[in-house]
Structures are given as C-alpha cells and as structure tokens.
Amino acid sequence: MPSKSEALFQRAANILPGGVNSPVRACKSVGCEPVFIDRAEGSRMWTVDGDELIDFVMSWGPMLLGHADKSVRDAALAAMDKGASFGAPCPAEVELGELIRQIMPSMEMVRMVSSGTEATMSAVRLARGYTGRDKVLKFDGCYHGHSDGFLVNAGSGVATLCIPGTPGVPEAIASLTLLAPYNDLAAVEAQFAAFGADIACVIIEAVAGNVGLIPPAKGFLEGLRALCTKNGALLIFDEVITGFRVALGGAQACFGVTPDLTTLGKIIGGGFPVGCYGGRREIMEHIAPCGPVYQAGTLSGNPVAMAAGIATLKGLMASDYAALEARTKAFAEEMAAILRAKGQAVTLNHMASMFTLFFTATPVTDYETAKTSNSATYGEFYRQMRALGVNLAPSGFECGFTSFAHTDADLRKTLDAARQVKL
Ligand code: KE4
C-alpha cells in the first residue's frame, strides 16, 4: 500500500512536470521521492503521512523567523480581511520600501516584484538601460533565478540536475553572459580587459549559496567594487538568500562593500511571493514610469505579501543574530565532526545561519571545488537523515538554513540522528 506521499507524487507526476513546481524539490539528485508536506510550524514540518521533520530547508531560506510565525500570520490575515489585491498603490508598499531602505541604506529607491528571478532579471535590464551596454558578468555556479541569461553555468537546480548548457536559451542571449570562477579576481580583470566597454554589470551572490555555501575570499568583493567603478559597470549584489540572513543588513553590511544595485527575495516576503530590486536613486529613476526602462507586475506590492514582509522584517529587527550564528556554528562544526568520525572527508562551509557540508577533503572555494563533493554520499546522508526525522536540502549544491525557531533541543536531536547514520 503506497503512503499518502507516494500516492500524491504519482498523481502529481501526471499533471506537473516531474511532479513538482520547482525542479530541486523533486529530490532526483538524492535518489528518492519527495515527501508532501501537510503543515509546518516553527522549526518543524509534518508530512501528509504524519511524519514529523526538523526542517533545515526552511522553504530555501525565507522562513528565518520559523514556519507559521504568529506575527506574520496575523499581519497577513488582517491584510487579507481588507482584500487580497487592489491593482492600485497601498500604504504597505511604502512602509515595506522605507523599512528596506532603513535596513539597507544603499537601496535609496526600491521596486517590489513577485520573485527573486523577477528582481534579478529587472536589475540586469536596468543596468543595461542605464549603461547602454549589453554584456553581463556572472560567476560559475551562481544562480540568480531562471531568466535566460542567468542559466549559463548556473548553480542550484541547474547544477543539481546536471543540465548541460542552456536548452531554450538562444545563443545570441547566452553569448551576452560572461563567466568567471567565483573568488577569481584575475579572471574578472581579464573579462574587463577584453569586454570592459560593453559590460553593463557584474552580478554576484556576495556569499554564494547555490553551489553549496561559498564565502567570498578576503578582498574579492572589494576588488569587484573597484573594477566595476573603474570600468563604468554596475555592481549588483544578489542578496535573495543573504539579505537579512547573513546579517540584518545582508552581505553588504557584513563585508562593508556597497553595490550599485541589490536584489532581494525569499525572507522579504516571509513566505509570500515577494522580490525586490533597488539601489542608487539616480539609477532607479531610470525605471518606468520615472524613466524609460520598463518593468511591471500585476501583483507587485501585493498588500497581503507586503504585510507579511513588514511583519517579518520587524520580527528580525528584534532578533538576536549573534546568538543564532553562534548556535549554528557550533551545530555545523559538531555535525562535521560526527561525519569525520565515521571516516568521511568533510569540508564545512558556514556563515551566520547557513551552512553546507561538502563530502570532500578539498577546500571549497568555487564551483569546480564544490563539484569534488561526493554526491552519492550526500544522497545517502540525505535519505538516512530524512528517515530519522531531519529534512536537509535535497541537493549537495544548496545550503542548510537554521532559523530563530530552531531550539537547542532541535539541534541536539539532529546531531543524535547524524550519529546513527551509516555511510
Ligand atoms: P526565485 O525566483 O526562486 O524566488 O529566486 C531566484 C533566486 C535568485 N537569486 C538567488 C541567490 C537564489 O538563490 C534564487 C533562488 N534560490 C533557489 C534555491 N537556492 C530557489 C529554490 C528553487 O529553485 O526551488
């Protein structure tokens, strides 16, 4: 007799490609079927079969306050009682925008959209419109959503599924995307030497989270800043993951490097579909209806999503980041030690409340070294941990996330589960 999850997955596969609405959820790279979730609260999720899981995916980052946070829930329900969408400006859009600028002052003006992909796609169009240039430089393994130009050597689900090249993306578009290895400033300098006058922007995950976690090498971000300024290109920090996570003010606050534009998503919506891009006023004023660079969205600034985002940011402004980071660090280091005690080669990369365990002895500093991680071992680890009640990222090219809802008991229980794993 199939479980409820198995039966649902069979039905789902008949209507949804791969049975999912986003590829990495299909668990293909970790050799099992996904479980269907009935509900989630705090650090926990419950499957449709009633199994309880301690969650370290946290919806791929958004749930930093924890699932079903009461303040977020109450705000969203109160907004819903006043109507789901107006197609006209509402006060919450202004309040959330002002809150973002208060937390990230480099974002002098912002535009709300409905996903991280929309944010990065729009920021790149703005950079092209503002500079009059066509080329974009991104980094091997970084993932900025699924708009055409970003799928060149991308991370996240593209890397997870080993999708070669960019089927469906015309060569004329893909050729406008330049690449460099993460943390390789010389390679970026070489691209600028070759194409400088035509590079509209450099877009980077200031802490890479889609090849697993890779922090920037000392001086790397500062070097990018200098090269962009020197060559008249815009520096875009894609903070869809890192915004409000690696610090309340994001990676730009952590490293003291100011981008020209920033893109946000995930946490900013508290679980609702929200993205945002913003930056220097004189750049943002090129966006319609101020300026000629067009971007629009039916549900941009949606009142329910804005209310959830405001409640989320206010909750985070009152949260103890240092404490969460210390607990996450200790937890991740203990997890690595447990796996090493089992004879596994493990490289641990962690920062703030995100971490990745790579099954390799090689230090992981870019996409190539991330690929030395043993994906079969990761898959075995994933499957056994899920059977023991722990939900890790179903891909070795993603990050684990803790939240302000994860208790010491959750972390201890997870470490106890790891001690039982046989690799
Ligand atoms: P969305 O369009 O998925 O909201 O955001 C795209 C995006 C942009 N930039 C960064 C740095 C991102 O990490 C993402 C999306 N992240 C992936 C997982 N790392 C989303 C999960 C999924 O694709 O299902």
Which secondary structure elements does this structure contain, and how are they paired or packed?
Layout: H1 4-15, E1 37-41, E2 44-47, E3 52-55, H2 70-80, H3 91-103, E4 109-113, H4 116-131, E5 135-139, H5 156-160, H6 171-174, E6 177-180, H7 185-195, E7 199-204, H8 220-231, E8 234-238, H9 250-255, E9 261-264, E10 275-279, H10 281-284, H11 303-317, H12 321-341, E11 347-351, E12 354-358, H13 367-370, H14 375-387, E13 390-391, E14 400-401, H15 408-420
Parallel strand pairs: 3-13, 5-6, 5-7, 7-8, 8-9
Antiparallel strand pairs: 1-2, 2-3, 4-10, 9-10, 11-12, 12-14
Helix pairs in contact: 2-11, 3-11, 7-8, 12-15
Ligand KE4 binds at residues 22, 24-25, 60, 115-117, 120, 143-145, 156-157, 205, 209-210, 238, 240-241, 265, 398.
Quick structural summary:
The protein has 2 domains: 4-64 and 320-420, Aspartate Aminotransferase, domain 1 (Alpha-Beta Complex), CATH 3.90.1150; 70-317, Aspartate Aminotransferase, domain 2. It contains 15 helices and 14 strands.
Question: How would you describe the overall organization of this protein?
Answer:
This protein is of the alpha/beta class and 423 residues long. It has 2 domains: 4-64 and 320-420, Aspartate Aminotransferase, domain 1, CATH 3.90.1150; 70-317, Aspartate Aminotransferase, domain 2 (3-Layer(aba) Sandwich). Helix content is 38%, strand content 14%. It contains 15 helices and 14 strands. It has helices spanning 4-15, 70-80, 91-103, 116-131, 156-160, 171-174, 185-195, 220-231, 250-255, 281-284, 303-317, 321-341, 367-370, 375-387, 408-420, and strands at residues 37-41, 44-47, 52-55, 109-113, 135-139, 177-180, 199-204, 234-238, 261-264, 275-279, 347-351, 354-358, 390-391, 400-401. It has a 7-stranded mixed beta sheet, sandwiched between helices. Helix 3 (91-103) packs parallel to helix 11 and helix 7 (185-195) packs parallel to helix 8 (220-231). The protein is globular and about 60 Å long. The structure holds ligand KE4. Ligand KE4 is lined by residues 22, 24-25, 60, 115-117, 120, 143-145, 156-157, 205, 209-210, 238, 240-241, 265, 398.
